[in-house]
Amino acid sequence: MRQHLQPAIDHYHALIANDLTAAENQLEQLRTQQHERRALFGGRPMAHSLRPTFLTEAMYADVQDTVYLIRQAILRIASVFFNDETLLREELGMEPWEIELAAIPTRVIHLAANARLDAFLTERSFKFVEFNGESPAGMAYVNELAKIYQDLPLFQTFTEQFPVRFVSPLQHAMQAFLRIYHDEFGGQELQPTFAIVDRLEDVPTTHEFDLIKTYLQRLGYGCVVIDPRELDCRNGWIYANGTKIDILYRRLLMNEFYEIRDDCQPYLEGYRAQKTCYLNTFRAKLVHKKAIFSFLTDEQYTKVLEAPQRQAIQQHIPWTRRLRPRTTEFRGLTIDLLDFARQNQRYFVIKPNDAYGGSGVTLGFASTPSEWDAAIEEGVEAGHVIQETVDIHREPFLMQTDNGWEQVPSIIDLDPYINGPLMGGCLTRISGSDLANVTAGGGTLPMFILRNTYHANS
Questions:
Q1: Domains in the chain, please, with CATH?
Q2: 6-18 and 20-36 are packed helices; what angle lies between their axes, rounded to 10 degrees?
Q3: Residue 140 CB: number of other CB atoms within 10 A?
Q4: Contact residues for 320 (Cβ-Cβ < 8 A; gap 6+)
Q5: Could you tell me if 273 and 237 are in contact, meaning their C-beta atoms sit under 8 angstroms apart?
Q6: How far apart are CA 132 and CA 67, in angstroms?
Q7: pLDDT tens digit string along 228-239?
Q8: Residue 161 — left, alpha, or beta (φ > 0 → left; ψ -120 to 50 → alpha)?
Q9: What number is the average pLDDT over the span 377-388?
């Protein structure tokens, strides 16, 4: 399917190569605009390639259909199995305090009002490797980067022959928040006031908070960016800098809240009162753990799914298990999990059950046997997951390097956002290494959908 992208990619690269002086000038424009428009992770620009990423309409529709089926599968499994507290602790890896917070009643039905499925592109398709169900970042960055690319003369020349469209994750997410606030939570304000809440010291994504605030204010919604320790709770309502808050956009991860819980009791008090609408709710942790993919790839749980859901999982979810002494099934074989992991390290990756940014990930094919054994021991102790390695496709990007302009083979991280049942755009990241996370040094790019993949004059 990716071969349909090649004419567009070749044309974009040709436009770069035909005038490298102009390309260098526009690359500088790309960097300058990111600083001026605050599309920065910490203090550094997000995008380093003159070419963004592309999907065809058919590819986007395929991702959309797959995401819907996998989301339905997760909801079905959660409805059948997640009332078992022992299962939540042992199989999903929930801590007792996480279970306690998730059990607080809320009027919001969705387990995750805003989520993101993170995938790698393969030679013929894509494979999801984790589900960011708690507080996915990047929506405003992608929205701003799309505007920056659309201002580049090179991009404008490209679209004369290859028309594109852009789906804004930020627009979709905020519309979903308003829908949930009115339809599920029962919010009464026609123009609700937002608070974006996170620990603000040393957080590299504060620029994104400012971008979201600016976006909401342009639409006529009040918005405050605030640290949870600065919140007040009055008669059950959350107040931020003296302003009553209707929708609390929760960028503060539950793990981070737990570390500072004694200093931000109004934050928890407001959640219990359920007058201010928290999105996402604390129930999002139920689908955020990486071990959710263990449920999706284990027959004892997937037996409750319908055939299309099971097929989508088989094609797009790598085999995953929590790493602990046990026997389990792998492609029809009964295996001792730890022995099997030791004997087949090049086929697997070990990762923390609840972390982000690629931290703590051990790649079997890139590790020595002693490093792999240590990762297994640590993983058993810490409750990590082991996951089958994905055969990642590398796509060339014509980029300026220390050696001049070169075709740099790069992996592409394709991460569609999910807002309720709807998919709303994608975050894409590229990297020359085996990790594409921004926190691991990867570059973020906007993803444009090609309205057609043929030459406009043909």
A1: 2-288+393-450 (3.40.50.1760), 319-388 (3.30.1490)
A2: 100
A3: 25
A4: 290, 291, 293, 294, 296, 297, 385, 386, 387, 388
A5: yes
A6: 13
A7: 999 999 999 999
A8: alpha
A9: 97
